[in-house]
């Protein structure tokens, strides 16, 4: 009991420390570096939300890009100033209530998340009866449907032309703030009775049902919560870049997030956070591989796309050597750190779950 | 075994991170030591869906860099970054050019949506960008730091409407558009507007059909169009789909001529469409048959010598973007990006390889359009259309 209290105090200190660091980062980092950090935080949110569905509940869903599109478009349409809306919709005017509404960032973001969650709830009802590959195909199809709908609703989403001039509200405080909130919600959820039920469903559905777990209720809960955070992540991403179009939300976007959770470990929160940071930062740091490299005596001609090869090799290594990703389903918790530091024998149930 | 693998993976990832850092230090030190280099950023899709288009433009930019390697007595260095045909990456690449590489001007990109993702970044960093073939009007609208050397969709749509009305004598037109492509949708819209104005008939567009990128079968759309019996069919879209569309239309017995936009000007259009695309007419930026300016002759000669094939229109646009940037730096007499921006904005009657360029108040090029047709399996020059002054 005492340990739990210390843990909470320590977490609060850590979070405050993080925001102090962010404050200085915001002062001293240029736009390029803070953009990469923002992306790290956003990919953490997206990774965590997909991991809740895929890693913890064991539902192989590929519909994340669709939920993100819903969140991104909702947030963008609500936060864009009226003159910019008029400029964007030069082909056909925006449908009526939306063209006069301008909301602050936070409510728009939350509404984006709620809409994504609502859609997830609606499609979850029929789709979550499927299992394994069938579920993957159905959710993939769903995200393509969202994209095609957004392409064709000219007066709502500006169709293929996309939206431009979305206010760049996303900054380090927004992205990291929401990432921390997501992290806390995920940790609390996973350690609650619901979390245990999710994991039971992942391990064995029939056994879980025998234990009295309502399969459908828990599956749809995980799916909806995951979609909610995906919508928020999408909204943050749209307002970070400042321009969105339906082509942005192709399957590749889901694949990027899938890469993060597979590398980090399906079913590990810390793994997702670590791999979101590693992948996003190294994607930029590895850019020198695309350029010509001068070794002094001779020059290697740059091959565009070489940095992507590194990720393919990394993915192959992970699949070959660590089936379960970098962290598997283990976590780095404060308990473990404290034990490591004090070199006390591990307490029962304190480490491995 | 597992421990070794863990160690290996950790070392690999860490070493890649460090490799990135050490490279960065090198670069900053080198750019500090020789400030006699002017950096021009090139931001193009080199991988991903639009890689082919990006590669063509880089050909033109590299050629221009070889012909004009110096300005203000300093060497010009091209900094190429890949935007992966992806919006998130495009924004990162633009931020990298403006913040880390500290370039004077940015050139690119192929694809309007990628340019739009960079728009806010160049505006905030106050570094001018010159678009090569991004034709969507939204790219430069409301952005003082984005310019372009190509004409925009409204002009191209108007040119084709004029062509259909006055040269083909069409009174009724049908539209088949690639609905997931911003370029095709924009072109179709402006074609519709000016065709309605020309004919004075609000019902002159007898049918509008949509298809998606990657579609193979167009029989539903074509049956619809056949029953409407138009004089001309305007079908802006990707070359593969357009070629298939025209082929299937001829098989269905549709005789009306097809007209389209500059995306058709690729060898694949003819190889897929074969004899079905004979007579297909489209507007484009440039022709290698009839040099427009002195610069075009120079460009054509050097291009054929270096690459051993005929230049694509976008290669000429890449070339133009580079020489326009150089000219602006020369006029400004400094590498101060705000002053260079002001000089770019003043550009008037600048002689580029793809025609004379004057920039209007939005930063869009006002220039000639070229009309070409497919004749005996080759793209043949038909006409040059002057812009309305």
TrEMBL record, chain A:
<feature type="transmembrane region" description="Helical">
    <location>
        <begin position="171"/>
        <end position="190"/>
    </location>
</feature>
<feature type="transmembrane region" description="Helical">
    <location>
        <begin position="303"/>
        <end position="322"/>
    </location>
</feature>
<keyword id="KW-0812">Transmembrane</keyword>
<keyword id="KW-1003">Cell membrane</keyword>
<dbReference type="GO" id="GO:0005886">
    <property type="term" value="C:plasma membrane"/>
</dbReference>
<feature type="transmembrane region" description="Helical">
    <location>
        <begin position="6"/>
        <end position="24"/>
    </location>
</feature>
<feature type="transmembrane region" description="Helical">
    <location>
        <begin position="101"/>
        <end position="128"/>
    </location>
</feature>
<dbReference type="GO" id="GO:0015658">
    <property type="term" value="F:branched-chain amino acid transmembrane transporter activity"/>
</dbReference>
<keyword id="KW-0472">Membrane</keyword>
<feature type="transmembrane region" description="Helical">
    <location>
        <begin position="36"/>
        <end position="53"/>
    </location>
</feature>
<protein>
    <submittedName>
        <fullName>Amino acid/amide ABC transporter membrane protein 2, HAAT family</fullName>
    </submittedName>
</protein>
<dbReference type="Pfam" id="PF02653">
    <property type="entry name" value="BPD_transp_2"/>
</dbReference>
<dbReference type="InterPro" id="IPR001851">
    <property type="entry name" value="ABC_transp_permease"/>
</dbReference>
<feature type="transmembrane region" description="Helical">
    <location>
        <begin position="220"/>
        <end position="241"/>
    </location>
</feature>
<feature type="transmembrane region" description="Helical">
    <location>
        <begin position="134"/>
        <end position="150"/>
    </location>
</feature>
<keyword id="KW-1133">Transmembrane helix</keyword>
<feature type="transmembrane region" description="Helical">
    <location>
        <begin position="59"/>
        <end position="80"/>
    </location>
</feature>
<feature type="transmembrane region" description="Helical">
    <location>
        <begin position="253"/>
        <end position="283"/>
    </location>
</feature>
<dbReference type="InterPro" id="IPR043428">
    <property type="entry name" value="LivM-like"/>
</dbReference>
Automatic annotation (TrEMBL), chain B:
<dbReference type="InterPro" id="IPR028082">
    <property type="entry name" value="Peripla_BP_I"/>
</dbReference>
<keyword id="KW-0732">Signal</keyword>
<feature type="signal peptide">
    <location>
        <begin position="1"/>
        <end position="19"/>
    </location>
</feature>
<feature type="domain" description="Leucine-binding protein">
    <location>
        <begin position="38"/>
        <end position="375"/>
    </location>
</feature>
<comment type="similarity">
    <text>Belongs to the leucine-binding protein family.</text>
</comment>
<dbReference type="InterPro" id="IPR051010">
    <property type="entry name" value="BCAA_transport"/>
</dbReference>
<dbReference type="InterPro" id="IPR028081">
    <property type="entry name" value="Leu-bd"/>
</dbReference>
<dbReference type="Pfam" id="PF13458">
    <property type="entry name" value="Peripla_BP_6"/>
</dbReference>
<protein>
    <submittedName>
        <fullName>Amino acid/amide ABC transporter substrate-binding protein, HAAT family</fullName>
    </submittedName>
</protein>
């Amino acid at each position: 009991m005492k340990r739990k209290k210390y843990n909470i105090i320590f977490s609060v200190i850590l979070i405050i420390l993080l925001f102090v660091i962010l404050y200085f980062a915001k002062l001293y980092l240029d736009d390029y570096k803070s953009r990469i950090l923002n992306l790290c935080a956003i990919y953490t949110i997206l990774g965590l939300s997909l991991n809740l569905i895929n890693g913890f509940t064991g539902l192989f869903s590929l519909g994340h890009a669709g939920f993100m599109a819903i969140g991104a478009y909702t947030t963008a349409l609500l936060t864009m100033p009226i003159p910019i809306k008029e400029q964007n919709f030069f082909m056909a005017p925006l449908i009526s209530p939306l063209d006069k509404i301008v909301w602050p960032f936070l409510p728009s973001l939350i509404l984006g998340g709620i809409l994504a969650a609502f859609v997830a709830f609606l499609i979850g009802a029929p789709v979550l009866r499927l299992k394994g590959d069938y579920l993957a195909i159905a959710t993939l199809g769903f995200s393509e449907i969202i994209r095609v709908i957004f392409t064709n609703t000219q007066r709502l989403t500006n169709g293929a032309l996309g939206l431009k001039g979305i206010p760049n509200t996303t900054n380090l405080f927004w992205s990291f703030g929401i990432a921390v909130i997501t992290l806390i919600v995920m940790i609390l959820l996973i350690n609650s009775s619901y979390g245990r039920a999710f994991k039971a469903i992942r391990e064995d559905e029939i056994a879980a049902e025998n234990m009295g777990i309502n399969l459908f209720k828990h599956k749809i809960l995980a799916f909806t919560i995951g979609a909610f955070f995906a919508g928020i992540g999408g909204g943050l991403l749209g307002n970070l870049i400042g321009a969105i179009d339906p082509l942005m939300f192709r399957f590749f976007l889901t694949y990027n997030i899938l890469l993060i959770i597979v590398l980090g470990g399906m079913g590990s929160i810390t793994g997702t956070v670590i791999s979101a940071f590693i992948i996003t930062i190294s994607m930029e740091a590895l850019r020198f591989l695309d350029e010509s490299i001068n070794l002094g005596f001779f020059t290697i001609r740059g091959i565009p796309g070489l940095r992507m090869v590194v990720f393919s090799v990394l993915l192959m290594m992970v699949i070959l050597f660590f089936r379960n990703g970098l962290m598997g389903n283990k976590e780095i918790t404060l308990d473990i750190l404290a034990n490591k530091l004090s070199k006390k024998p591990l307490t029962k149930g304190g480490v491995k779950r | 075994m597992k421990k070794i693998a863990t160690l290996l993976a950790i070392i690999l990832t860490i070493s890649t991170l460090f490799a990135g850092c050490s490279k960065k230090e090198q670069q900053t030190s080198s750019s500090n030591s020789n400030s006699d280099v002017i950096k021009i950023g090139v931001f193009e899709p080199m991988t991903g869906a639009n890689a082919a288009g990006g590669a063509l433009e880089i050909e033109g930019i590299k050629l221009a860099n070889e012909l004009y390697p110096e300005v203000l007595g300093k060497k010009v260095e091209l900094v190429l970054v890949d935007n992966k045909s992806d919006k998130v990456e495009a924004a990162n690449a633009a931020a990298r050019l403006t913040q880390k590489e500290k370039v004077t001007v940015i050139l690119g990109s192929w694809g309007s949506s990628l340019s739009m993702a960079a728009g806010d970044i160049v505006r905030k960093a106050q570094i001018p960008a010159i678009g090569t073939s991004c034709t969507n009007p939204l790219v430069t609208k409301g952005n003082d730091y984005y310019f372009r050397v190509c004409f925009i969709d409204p002009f191209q749509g108007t040119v084709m409407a004029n062509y259909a009305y006055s040269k083909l004598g069409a009174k009724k037109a049908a539209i088949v558009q690639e609905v997931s492509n911003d370029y095709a949708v924009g072109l179709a819209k402006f074609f519709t507007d000016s065709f309605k104005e020309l004919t004075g008939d609000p019902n002159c567009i007898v049918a509008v059909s949509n298809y998606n990128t990657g579609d193979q079968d167009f029989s539903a759309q074509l049956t619809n169009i056949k029953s409407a019996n138009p004089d001309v069919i305007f079908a802006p879209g990707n070359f593969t789909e357009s070629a298939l569309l025209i082929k299937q239309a001829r098989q269905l017995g549709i005789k009306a001529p097809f007209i389209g936009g500059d995306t058709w000007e690729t060898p694949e259009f003819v190889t897929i469409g074969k004899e079905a695309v004979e007579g297909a007419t489209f507007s484009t930026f440039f022709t290698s048959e009839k040099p427009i300016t002195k610069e075009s002759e120079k460009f054509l000669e050097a291009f054929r010598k270096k690459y051993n094939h005929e230049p694509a229109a976008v290669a000429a646009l890449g070339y133009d973007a580079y020489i326009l940037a150089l000219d602006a730096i020369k006029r400004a007499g400094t590498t101060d990006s705000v002053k260079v921006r002001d000089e770019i904005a003043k550009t008037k009657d600048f002689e580029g390889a793809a025609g004379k360029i004057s920039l209007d108040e939005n930063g869009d090029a006002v220039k000639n359009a070229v009309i070409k047709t497919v004749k005996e399996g080759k793209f043949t020059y038909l006409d040059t259309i002057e812009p309305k002054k």
